[in-house]
Amino acid sequence: MSIIFELFKSSGKRVCPPNYVRKSNCPLIVRTTSEDLLTANVFGILKNLDPKIWLTKFLGEAIKGRDFSRHTFENLSFAFWKRYRPPANRKFREGTSEVDVTISYKDGIIFIEAKYLAPVNLRTTSDPRRDQIIRYLDLASYHYLNHPDRVKEFYFVLIIDTEKPPWILTRYKSPRNLAKGLTPHGLFPVNEDIGSLLSKGIGWLSWSQVKKILEVNKLQFRTPVERRFVEDLIVYLDYKIREGERIRIERKQLSFW
Fold this sequence. Notes:
The protein is α/β, with parallel strands linked by helices. The protein has one domain. The chain has helices spanning 3-9, 35-46, 51-62, 132-145, 167-170, 175-180, 192-200, 207-217, 224-256, and strands at 77-84, 97-105, 108-114, 153-159, 202-205. A five-stranded mixed beta sheet has the order 1-2-3-4-5, sandwiched between helices. Helix 3 packs across helix 8 (207-217). It starts with a helix and ends with a helix. The model has no long low-confidence stretch (mean pLDDT 86).
């Protein structure tokens, strides 16, 4: 599903009603509300553009107080919906988790969780006391940080349309609170420096902020082809932001009646 296809097919018509249910005749791939479709369209293009331009600004805006201007992001690679097995010592069993975008480079890992109209899950299927954010941070600790060859850097970026930092993230800005939610990987508790590393790397952006980053830095891309791709993304994000607001209004009206 490309940007052009989604924009063309939805021009002047509604792909799915705002009150659709999963059983209705509305394929997931063409739903206006599909987070996977939005993620694929945006990051499917960004992964092929110069990371020293967009990724440094993306992280700098998401994680306040950190300067990424000197990052080179050597050996950069992207994985979409990569599946991670849960920590082996979990008290409550969990299935595998899919991280929307995993960005790997020489010195670190970036997890991106992209939301559109859906909120952050505050409980998991197997453990009602465990939210979606700590589940992903636990995966990072288990797979990338709690062994001798661990990565030097880890960042978690939540993309969600809120005007203020999501409260769920502020809970884990405290290394101690964060470490309490991680699964011990042996006879000893989680190392406190892992909690500190994770808490310092948590950030968030709205889709409007992503669009603004591209607008401000569009002319920094060196080739005309790159700039055209960025222009397409700006148009697309503008459409998705307006479409999201339209759907929210319609859902409020439907709930009122």
